[in-house]
Amino acid sequence: MLKDYLDRDIYNLITKSFSFSDITEIRMRVNENLIVVVKNKKYYLKDEAGEFVKVNSNMIENFVRRASENSIYAFNDNIVNGFITLPKGIRVGLCGNIVTDGDKIVTVKEFQSVNIRIPHVIRNCSLSAFDFLVGDDVKNTLVISPPGSGKTTFIRDFIYQLYSHNISKNVLIADERNEICSVVNGEPNIDLGGFCDIYTNCTKKFAFKNGIRSMRPDIIVTDEIDLDKDLPSIIEAINCGVNVIATIHAKDINQLKKKNNFDKVLDEKYFSRFVVLSSDEGPGTLTNIYDEKLNCIFCRWIWLNGY
Question: Confidence band (pLDDT; 50, 70, 90) for 86?
Answer without folding.
Answer: confident
